[in-house]
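Quick one before lunch.
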Amino acid sequence: MIRVLIWNEFYHEQFKEKIQKVYPEGIHRALAEFLGREEDISVRTATLYDEHCGITKELLDETDVLLWWGHARHGEVPDEVAELVRDAVLDGMGAIFLHSAHHSKPFRLLMGTPCHLTWRESEDREVLWVIDPAHPITRDIDRYFVLPAEETYGEPFIVPNPDKVLLIGNYSGGEVFRSGCLYERGNGKIFYFQPGHETFPTYKDPNVQSIIRNAVRFLAPTYRVRPTCPHVRKITDDEPYVIVKP
Ligand code: ZN
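Model of the zinc ion complex:
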């Protein structure tokens, strides 16, 4: 069973009518709804309004893949929570940062750059082009798929060069964007996935759901090891090499 934790800021859904029409129970519930249908995935959720953002070391230790959505209240996430997430990824936890989570504290910590991009809300149509059709995350997608309306995110995206770019978004306004980026940090894998503006039903799109489902399975660790920095003795005939498995 892959244990998924979905974290959502859950701020604007509580009072903005336009968003409530799309996600009446919040974006986290919409994500939980389709992921929870999978037999090999169990889902928990947490929001900014839970105590300590609903994030503890114990909970992250029991999480294989964390999904993170936020856009307006990044600054209210305590630094200690972002550090817990970073450390869990370094141990091996998978993390999917969705849409405006590019500016979230844990993503910026893991990237080490400002993660700025260019943007506008003009309901552009987005075509998402598959760059790596053989990758497990894009396995169900044809050459491309279309979202009738999305918030425009454009280059330059101020992140380290991804280990792999899986998708490039192209908007009717002309911009292009690295919409699916894979990273490894420590023992953990990270996937940044751009679609998901809160006023559009993006997380109800079957292609978007496929990519998130596939990403959960791809990012899930087989086991986790805390990176350490041990001071060790030289291997000699008197003290033979011993393999210590975690
Ligand atoms: Zn947005």
